TrEMBL record:
Annotated GO MF terms: actin binding
Main location: cytoplasm
Keywords recorded for this protein, A-Z: Actin-binding, Cell adhesion, Cytoplasm, Cytoskeleton, Repeat
Protein name, per record: Parvin, beta
Family: Belongs to the parvin family.
Cellular component terms (Gene Ontology): actin cytoskeleton; focal adhesion; lamellipodium; Z disc
PANTHER family reported for this sequence: BETA-PARVIN, PARVIN
Single Gene Ontology BP annotation: substrate adhesion-dependent cell spreading
Source organism per UniProt: Scleropages formosus (Asian bonytongue)
Domain called Calponin-homology (CH): residue spans: 63-170, 230-337
Subcellular location: Cytoplasm, Cytoskeleton; Cytoplasm, Myofibril, Sarcomere, Z line
Family matches, as Pfam families: CH (PF00307)
Amino acid sequence: MAALLCGTKRKKQVSDLQEEGKHAINAPLIPSSAELHPEDTLLEENAERTMLDPTSREDAKLKDLQRVLIDWVNNELEEERIIVKDLEEDLYDGQVLQKLFEKLSGRKLNVAEVTQSEIGQKQKLQTVLEAVNELIQHHGWSTEWSVDLIHSKNLVAIISLLVGLAVHFQAAVRLPEHVSVQVLVVKKKDGVLHATHVTKELTTTTELMMGRFERDAFDTLLDHAPDKLNIVKKSLITFVNKHLNKLNLEVTELETQFADGVYLVLLMGLLENYFVPLYNFYLTPENFEQKVHNVSFAFELMQDGGLKKPKARPEDVVNLNLKSTLRVLYNLFTNYKNRE
């Protein structure tokens, strides 16, 4: 009996040793920081799966980018009474993406409104992504998303898609710059899983992203004719002071004095000949959000006055972006230059 027990014990030790040996061989191939789910290991030969490395998930810039995108989507879909709280859980089935694309493009997609089955969800995603890709690829974007990636709640793919939409439609948001994440690529070869890390860039600079599709006269002035730019700035200063002087206000620096939005709001009241109630804006804004509120409110007043929505974003004016400020003021100049 004792011999039988010893034999059984030895077999278990051998078995444990074999398992330990297997683990020692395979362990270096799978970084310990990555949490592989069962479906990640069930790969066909030569197939691969990508996933966000857990360490990147806690990155402050990535969290900030997610927050900005969620706020943007919710703002765009406010009339639909859609509230997104989690990009992975709320966008994977195509419903929100469909509504977002339709709102941004003004184009109705031929898809079922509600789809519960996986097949129906993927069919909807296919239609939405085909429409998105048709627009974005036309401008040279490489698509970093697919039906399977979005439906499997791949955060990198979902964020890449939203960033692409935000940039293409010139969304009035400031995307955090230089957001990169570590992506784990797992591939099965000869029955063994091999894992490598790849750095994925989700955003670059605001200039590269938002200036990607459109350059205007101010880009040319800044790049090639700084002497002429100074003439334009003097003309704009003369124009704004002609009206702001009525309130005993004077502008000497376009770059800084419009950044908090106060002069923009007051200028619109003067140009349209009405008093702007002080409770509608912050006369002495104390932080970034209050300044953005002021500039956004000024933009609303411009649209109320029949002007098109400014191409510049409120955040860029607040951040002292000269081209953005010039675009806004030049738009006012062309529409109100003869106004006394």
